[in-house]
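Thread: quick sanity check before group meeting

JM: Hey all, I'm pulling together slides for Thursday and realized we never actually wrote out the predicted structure for the chain we discussed last week. Dropping the sequence here so it's in one place. If anyone has concerns about the input, flag it before I start.
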Amino acid sequence: MSVPVPFGQFVPGDSPVHRLDSRVKISVMVALTVTLFSVGGWPGLLVIAAAVVMTVRIAGVPWRLALRGLKPVVWLLLFTLLVHALRWKSAEASFAFGPVSVDGLGLSAGAFLALRIIVLMLGASLVTLTSSPVALTDALASMLRPLALVRFPVDDVAMMFSIALRFIPTTAEEAERIVVAQTARGAVFDSGGPFKRAKAWVPVLIPLFVRLFRRADDLAIAMESRCYTGRGRSRLRELVLRPTDWAVLVVTVILSAAVAILL
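JM (edit): ok, ran it. Output follows.
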């Protein structure tokens, strides 16, 4: 039994998307989010969805990894769809099951919101899949640099972000080892009702948290022994926006504004 890793797993590659500056990817993701919540109809949403799908193809990221981030929100998507689709004694019902009916307009609204969440999650996954944790940390530190004027701990926040990204796959690996060990001892995780399944995960969560706290403590001791203060943090590569990065950023902003206004 494997534990999926929704975010934080970097897929190395040499595609145009991989070569983009991480600051541009984060900015494009922000523009995508704003545009997604600005469009009010299917044409705009479908244009954004097609752009995201095309970007995934250009990046060469396997679809099983790109769609992996949707697993934690499957129930949210179904709930969103049902909440908007179900009606009580609706006069314009498409399907009726006693007093409960399915309204076509509500079903369309639920599908619209569900697709919006899918596109948003897919775009966020693409950023982490095509950017290494170090690149994302440096990009975040660079974008937050102006806040240092008001004594905001930019380097500390960037370091915490980097550690969090690195701990995501580490946590999944630890959980998978514990699950395999418990399965070998006769534990069953995929049978029974919801309460039985939740109870079966207790012997996994307790040792998992213990190991994570130990790792965090070891990391803190290692950083203190190396006199880490968070100030004057050096970088192996300085971030420089190339003409291609500027072109992608400008084109994305213009197209996002056009879609949000026209569609």
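AS: nice. The radius of gyration is 22 Å. The chain has eleven helices and three strands.
JM: adding both to the slides.
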